[in-house]
Structures are given as C-alpha cells and as structure tokens.
Design goal:
This protein is an alpha/beta fold. Among the domains are: 84-160, Dna Ligase, domain 1, CATH 3.30.1490.110; 196-347, Nucleotidyltransferase, domain 5, CATH 3.30.420. Helix content is 32%, strand content 31%. It is built from ten helices and 21 strands. The strands form six sheets. It has a six-stranded mixed β-sheet with strand order 12-7-1-2-3-20, sandwiched between helices. Strands 15-14-13-18-19 form a five-stranded mixed β-sheet, sandwiched between helices. The chain has a four-stranded antiparallel β-sheet with strand order 8-11-9-10. β18, α9 (332-340) and β19 (344-346) form a beta-alpha-beta unit. α6 packs across α7 (247-257) and α6 runs antiparallel to α8.
C-alpha cells in the first residue's frame, strides 16, 4: 500500500520548485506532479522582495497541485545558503559501574549533553549527525552493551537562523501553504544521489545553485558542510558585464552555447548578438568558453581549498558528485577533475518512476527532499520543527492534503 504523498518546496535564487511524490510498494519514488516559477525575490538565498517570493510560491504550488490532482495546503521546505551554519559538540558522561553495560539511556544522556554544549543563539537545529563514540578513550562504532566508566560522544549539527526560517515560513503561509518542517537541501540531495558504498568510501557533493554553491563531505556520516559564495548566476553576470548584454540574454547565451574545457566542432565560429545599446556584436565559441571557464574554475578552486582544510576532504575515494542547475554546464565534470584531482561525475537520481528529463541535476534537491521526508525515521537526525511549533511532522501529514 502506498503512503501519503509528500510535497516539498525548493526555493532558490532563480526559481521556486514545488514537487509532489510518493513511495511505491517496491520502495521506488514516484513523482506525481511538479510546478516551477521564476523568482527574483531572493539574493544568495535571502529574501529581498517578499511579494515576489509569495507570487512564485503560489504559481509553483498551483502548477504542482494541478499536475498531481491535489489541492496542496502544506509542504516541507528546503533550507540552504548564508543562514545555515554548522557546529561540532562534544560531551562526556559517566557510566554507573563497569559491571553494567552501556545502554540506550546512557547514549541518550550523552546526546542530551551535546545539546547543552550548543552555543546560545537565535538558531534552530536542522539536523544532527553523530561523528564518533569513545568508551574510556577508545573509539568504537557502537557503544551499546560495552563496559566502561566513561562515554564520549561528538556530534555535528546543522543550524539555521531562526529569523530566516520564520521569514520563509511567512512567505509560504501567505501563499496558502503550511510548512511541516525544514530540511537542509544538500543533505537531502545526498539521500537521492549518493549510494551507501560511496558514503563508506568517502565522497563529496557539490550543489551548484544560482546564487551559491554548497559543499558536503561524507565519510560514513556527514563530516563537513560549507558554502561557496558563487553560483551559476555569477557566470551569467560575467557574460553580461564583459559582453555588455542584458542578464536575460546572457543566461540564454550560456545555456545555448556555454561550455568549458574541450573545444567542440566549430569553436572558432562566431555567435552574433546585440549589446544593451542595440549594437550588433559577435564572439567566438572559444572566447565565450574563456569567460565562462574563468569563473567556474574559481568556484572549483574554492572547493579545493575547503577539501584541503578538512581531513576527510583528503579521503574521497568515491570522488565528487555535482548537482544543481549549475552542474548542467557542458564538460563541467572534466574541469572539476582537472582542478580538484579527484573523480568527478554528474549526480543521477535512482529508484524513481517519473517523466523523462527529471534525472537532470537541477531537480536533485527537490527529489532528495521528498526522499528524505519519506525516510526520515531511518535518518539519525530528525527534521527541524517550524519556529513556533514542536509538533511531530508525521502527525501533520494527514492535514497537508485536500484531494480534489
């Protein structure tokens, strides 16, 4: 029997995407409907024009509901960008005598102690991942049923600014959508793109959005999360400035003719366009490539520095996976391998039943949000509650949908 459908909102700098999916009896994910709308009400993941964001959410939700045959009144929302931060906490708890093995109560006391070690501030915890256990100073994979006097736990928590969550929630509510919970988008995308074997081997995920790019490193668990302050829009802005053309036409030029690395046939042929002053101009494919590649290489250089700063960044046996709209640039994986020195591939979602084209990297975050919401009981870290509510998310699912 199929479970209840799940609705998610992926609010990006360039567009708002609403997607509806449900889990099939064979555990495959079926996408029931999708809607999208351009959005210029955000700058690097921060709302700068609330009415524009509300209009974009309304349009995307209406389109998704129509295609899925549902009236959508609630959704899970993805979080990313400058409002997100990470914090590592460490706790030590005493065990009552070596004759009694460590049980779940001891582990829960240790986890509670890590929460108390969190810095005071106006932030909420999106997810928490256990980094390590140690019994009497010796690292163990699982402390249950072991004997010792002292249990140590280290956790990595993903935090989001409460004000950002409240603002996004308000935008959704103005569009008639109740937010059931917040999920970090890169963590969610990983659930749809990274296999268990790749996690154990060591792998990184780079989500290239319009305004920013998010890097996550996995080695068993999530080990590191960082934001790169550049994204696909920066490539577009470079073209717009250098070629004196409008951002809209620069984006079209990038999508139609943009590439990096290898020269395709006809690379010396010219591309004609008009400048903002209305003057005719032309540029060769090779010159266009040089402009685009300079910025894309800079993004990868930032990634390389992040990998070098983290010990797990040097243990990527499974390489790096690219996702997000910016990952659709031709030959981008080849450039990534040249700069980073690790295997790089485009992410591809698996175990899905959907229309052709949904495997594109630009949809990975939304698909991952659905997968994460469906599998949340299997995840170590629960999703963050909306700011003014502590209710469990699954208790709210029955009120999310009103079938047509």
């Amino acid at each position: 029997m199929n479970g209840s459908p799940i609705v998610v909102l992926d609010i990006g700098t360039a567009k708002v995407l609403c997607m509806v999916g449900e889990q099939q009896p064979d555990d495959k994910l079926k996408i029931l409907g999708m809607g999208s709308s351009p959005c210029r009400g955000l700058r690097r993941s921060s709302i700068i024009d609330m009415p524009k964001v509300v209009d974009a959410i309304t349009t995307a939700v209406t389109e998704a509901g129509r295609s899925a045959g549902l009236k959508i009144t609630g959704a899970y929302m993805g979080m990313a960008g400058e409002s997100v931060s990470v914090h590592t906490s460490h706790s030590t708890v005493a065990i009552s005598g070596t004759s009694t093995p460590i049980d779940d109560n001891d582990v829960q006391r240790g986890l509670a102690a890590t929460e108390q070690a969190m810095p005071a501030g106006n932030a909420i915890v999106l997810h928490r991942f256990i980094q390590s256990y140690a019994v009497d100073g010796e690292y163990v994979q699982n402390p249950l049923w072991l004997h010792g006097n002292k249990l140590e736990i280290e956790t990595l928590s993903i935090l989001a600014a409460r004000q950002s969550c409240t603002t996004l929630q308000r935008a959704a509510e103005e569009a008639g959508v109740e937010i059931a919970g917040f999920i970090h988008e890169t963590v969610a995308a990983a659930s749809a793109l990274i296999s268990p074997d790749e996690r154990e081997m060591g792998v990184a995920l780079l989500d290239i959005g319009a305004g920013t790019s998010d890097l996550a490193i996995f080695h068993g668990q999530l080990r590191h999360l960082a934001e790169i302050p550049f994204g696909g829009d920066d490539l577009t802005k470079d073209l717009s400035v250098v070629l004196s053309m409008s951002p809209r036409e620069a984006e079209q030029l990038k999508q139609l003719h943009g590439y990096v690395c290898s020269r395709p046939e006809g690379a010396d042929q010219n591309i004609s366009f008009n400048t903002t002053a209305g003057r005719p101009h032309s540029i060769s494919h090779h010159q266009l490539k040089e402009i685009i590649e300079a910025r894309q290489q800079e993004i990868f250089e930032f990634v390389r520095q992040e990998l070098e700063r983290n010990s797990y960044g040097k243990k990527l046996a499974a390489g790096l996976i690219l996702t997000g709209g910016g990952a659709m640039l031709e030959n981008i994986a080849q450039l990534g391998e040249e700069v980073l020195g690790v295997p790089v591939r485009l992410g591809s979602t698996q175990e899905m039943l959907t229309a052709p084209g949904m495997e594109d990297p630009q949809y990975a975050a939304a698909i991952g949000l659905i997968r994460f919401a469906l599998d949340e009981e299997a995840h170590e870290a629960a999703m963050a509650p909306v700011p003014q509510s502590g209710r469990k998310f699954l208790d709210k699912l029955a009120r999310i949908f009103s079938f047509m």
